[in-house]
Design a protein that fits this description.
The structure holds two protein chains of two kinds. Chain A is built from eleven helices and no strands. By secondary structure, chain A is mainly alpha-helical. The longest helix of chain A is centred in the N-terminal third of the chain and has 34 residues, at 4-37. In chain B, α2 (92-100) packs parallel to α4. Classes of the chains: A mainly alpha, B alpha+beta. The interface between A and B is medium-sized, with 20 and 25 residues.
């Protein structure tokens, strides 16, 4: 059955995934917009950087983050200079790691959706007296709705299943940084297969339901239009 | 309210260097070969395209000069694109209201109801954009621009993407906008027939420069411009129906240069009509022919002779104040001894009724 510790891990996982998705939507939207619109020559550098977590082994990403966020790393030093704590082995550190790790899953669907809209609807909106910000919210957001949904669900689901990065920078501190995938690993290591079954089955179900939502809703959007 | 514009754009091989004023109302057609800068000009007026050395004043408001650049969304204009470009996430009414909601207390002379009625789209209001035909979409797009009561309406080949039946469907609406609303309209087009019907003025652009401008009838009959030199050259004449010859399904119409017989069975006496006389349907004879199947024969004076190039060239004739064009071969011109001032007889093989 599911233990108290497993419930805590589930709660931490959901909190991590929700917070990461929210922050990624906030910073990923302008970034994706810029990537979709900009005609800067070296734009591809940034595109490659955003896509890097897709190919990089999570442990490699986690290792560098551990160094950067730890007490001797640049970000850790900066935090200490500001009177804070180094971020390695903290929940905040996990959030930072997850943001980088899941970035391409949010930015790429958004960028694709923004590119597909093209210039014309924005020009029409401008000719109809809509200011740039107004154009974004009244034209781009509704037209890119399927893109936003895909981005949010992929970002959330991808963070749910995170393992390597979390293990490297979060460690395995129950109640602080122990997430579901690590709990499953621990159960298997301890030969507690029944607990591992419950958690794995639960995660499988959640992931499948979320993807069903994406495809189902995207189908409805396209029928509505 | 007049419009004054001066633009200079240089982008690689492309350059646009124009200066013009536009009358305060009526449709001014901007014509020219593709790639000449017609669309760029329209986009620059709308502020969708930036031009460093530009000046644009609409009525009392300066939209652009060395110090000022009013962004598109603050310009009082309506823009109709070649493709209707309706917002797909809104229905027809939502599209019409989009701009209206953003007018925020600015003057609105054209009510939503009026625009809807002008374009005949009452029955479409609750429809989804995807359920509309091409012609209906474009009518909604035009109404959407009109409800803003713009100080200038910019139309970029609004009919070019439509088949000829849809064109015929929209044309009357464009005519009624022109007669009912006092808005200056800039109408980019390459279709002479469309422009001849709609526009009072033509600005002809070639290689980014204004080649010529003037009243439509006069421009179409100018032998130094491509319109009259084209194989499809034609003049459009306003006339009035004077009598019907019902047994033969013919009508007599009068124009300042004389009378014409046209094939038409549905006209009523006193009605104003426009007819198109194609230059290649006008032949010339030294004497009035008898015993011919041609009904329309009248005396004309040679007013101007076009450049004699190739096998055929165009001659402009004057029939009592009305210009018509004739496309003849160089050989025929020699046989006739054609000179400016010669009196001849024009024979019209056919006269087409427009509108």
């Amino acid at each position: 059955m599911i233990s108290e510790a497993d419930l805590t891990a589930l709660f931490i996982t959901l909190k991590l995934a929700a917070l990461t998705t929210l922050i990624l939507l906030i910073i990923g939207t302008p970034l994706a917009w810029w990537l979709a619109r900009s005609r800067w020559r070296y734009k591809f550098l940034l595109e490659a950087l955003v896509a890097l977590p897709l190919v990089l082994p999570p442990t490699v990403l986690g290792f560098y983050l551990l160094i950067a966020l730890g007490p001797n790393g640049p970000i850790g030093q900066m935090m200490q200079a500001l009177g804070g704590q180094p971020l390695a082995f903290t929940f905040t550190g996990l959030v930072i790691g997850s943001i980088i790790y899941s970035m391409p899953f949010v930015v790429q669907p958004l960028q694709t959706a923004f590119t597909a809209i093209g210039q014309r609807p924005l020009e029409v909106a401008a000719s109809l007296r809509a200011s740039p910000l107004d154009r974004f919210f009244s034209v781009v957001v509704p037209l890119a709705r399927p893109g936003f949904l895909t981005a949010a669900v992929l970002g959330f689901a991808h963070t749910l299943g995170e393992f390597g990065v979390v293990l490297m920078i979060g460690g395995n501190i129950p109640g602080v940084t122990q997430v579901l995938s690590i709990s499953i690993y621990n159960h298997v290591e301890g030969l507690e297969y029944s607990n591992a079954h419950w958690l794995s089955g639960g995660l499988l179900l959640i992931s499948f339901i979320m993807l069903l939502m994406v495809y189902g809703l995207n189908r409805r959007f396209s029928l509505l239009r | 309210m007049s419009i004054e514009a001066r633009f200079e754009i240089n982008k690689g091989d492309f350059s646009l260097n124009v200066e013009f004023t536009i009358p305060e109302q009526g449709i001014t057609a901007i014509m020219g070969p593709s790639g000449c800068g017609k669309t760029t000009l329209l986009r620059t007026i709308a502020g969708l395209e930036r031009c460093k050395n530009g000046f644009l004043k609409v009525g009392e408001t300066t939209w652009q000069d060395e110090n000022v650049f009013v962004p598109t969304h603050k310009r009082s204009l309506g823009y109709v694109f070649q493709e209707a470009s309706l917002f797909e996430h809104l229905n027809v009414k939502g599209n019409l209201q989009y701009g209206l909601k953003r007018l925020k207390g600015l003057k609105q002379d054209v009510s939503l109801e009026h625009a809807v009625e002008l374009l005949g789209i009452e029955h479409l209001l609750s429809r989804h954009v995807e359920q509309l035909s091409g012609g209906e979409k474009q009518r909604v797009a035009i109404a959407r621009a009109l409800v803003l009561s713009p100080e200038i309406l910019l139309m970029d080949e609004p009919l070019a993407a439509l088949d000829s039946a849809r064109k015929q469907e929209i044309m009357p609406y464009l005519e009624s906008i022109n007669t009912q609303l006092r808005i200056p309209v800039l109408y980019v087009s390459h279709a002479v027939a469309e422009v001849a019907r709609l526009a009072e003025h033509i600005v002809l652009i070639e290689n980014g420069r204004i080649r010529a401008r003037g009243e439509t009838a006069e421009m179409l009959a100018r032998l130094d411009l491509p319109f009259a030199r084209d194989d499809d050259a034609a003049v459009y004449i306003e006339a009035r129906v004077v009598s019907n010859d019902e047994p033969f399904a013919l009508s007599e119409i009068a124009f300042p240069g004389g009378q014409l017989t046209i094939a038409a069975s549905h006209l009523s006496v006193g009605q104003d009509v426009r007819v198109r006389i194609a230059a290649r349907d006008v032949s010339l004879t030294l004497t009035h022919q008898h015993g011919t199947s041609i009904l329309n024969i009248f005396p004309v004076v040679v007013e101007e002779i076009g450049e004699r190039e190739g096998a055929q060239f165009t001659v402009r004739l004057r029939a009592n104040g009305t210009s018509i064009l004739s496309r003849i071969t160089r050989k025929s011109a020699n046989i006739l001894g054609l000179k400016v001032g010669s009196t001849l007889f024009a024979q019209l093989k056919s006269v087409a009724l427009c509108s």
